[in-house]
Amino acid sequence: MASVSRDNKGWRILFADADGIRRTLRLGKVDRKAAESIRGHVEALLVAKTTAQPMRQETAAWLGSIGEKLRGRLERVGLVEAAPTSPTVCDWVQKYIESRVTVKPTTKDNWRIVRDNLVAFLGDKRLTQVTPADGDRFREYLAGALKLSPATVSKRIQIARQFFRAALRSRLIVENPFADVAAPNVSNRERMRFVTREDTERIITSCPDVHWRTIVALARYGGLRCPSEVLSLRWDGIDWERSRMRVDSPKTEHHPGGAFRIVPIFPELRPFLESSWAEAEEGAVYVIPERFRKGALKAEVWKSCNVRTTFEKIVRRAGVEPWPRLFQNLRSSRETELVEQFPVHVVTRWIGNTPTVAMRHYLQVTDEHYEQALTETHQTTPRNPTQNPTQQLHE
What we know:
The structure is a single chain. The protein is mainly alpha-helical. It has 17 helices and 8 strands. A hairpin with a 2-residue loop joins β1 and β2 (10-16). α5 (105-122) packs across α7 (150-169), α6 (132-144) runs antiparallel to α7 and α9 (210-220) runs antiparallel to α10. The longest helix is centred in the first third of the chain and has 20 residues, at 32-51. Residues 385-395 have low confidence and may be disordered.
């Protein structure tokens, strides 16, 4: 169907198109092996056009990987149709972000950061021009030039992969250049702290009023996210008789079954809720007064900066050194305690995450664990270590 020959201008492929007209595809400066490889794809393209069938997968992938110069030659001899202009990375990502109408604003803010990183690194490249090598170099750019933490690098690689996966599903590219870029889900253990009950009580004592004491108790003893879940807790969701409370979760409400969860009113937490109830204004809807919500909820986006700033001052006033991720480590400390008393599937249902997320980002190893291990090891170690195995074998 097609043959390879060479003249004084270089290698060329001769073939007859669907109408029987002889065509010549000039290849320029390539070797015979490359010319033979291209001939195979030319024959596949001819079969696809003649039979009106989809081209084979290998040829489709090859067609998406060739340069604009060779593709232009294929278009001129009628083997392929002129390809629509591929959008730039910036234009496509912006279009993708705008199309995701159900995504929370904070998520879109994070996506825009990755968009800016990609544009700063790739410039005005079009989607079809981005290669897997670009994906590898982008990872090095985040870690080296921007000096981001491994966890942040991994998260941004995952988001970039999501952008190009969407482009692949829209048939704008033939492969995802970020598909094989290593981006393990890294947990930064250096930012995890176990907040002891002793420090918690000192902090609660330093709180200026009952509302702040309840905020700290809900985060540390209830395991609620702060500010979103703590400031969304409603009085009509408190079941005093059954010692349970309905916790609405703005963060997970878009997941099936994630809009709310039922959490026990733990014995440590109940006195603080009762104190807040005693001082609540008549007709109050939320456990924590709405003035806190107005300071933390801006345009339907939860911003914990105001709450966090005040809480850090309270922590310092208590004589405790502030720890990283102030509120998340309160939740983490509570979940670490609970898994020692209840099955992990029960605890994660109360806390509002999954066992995988809990193991990777929340559960901690405390000093008490080490002390307990040493104590229990001392109690269970036999006095004569050479005697016990013999006795077991005889039995």
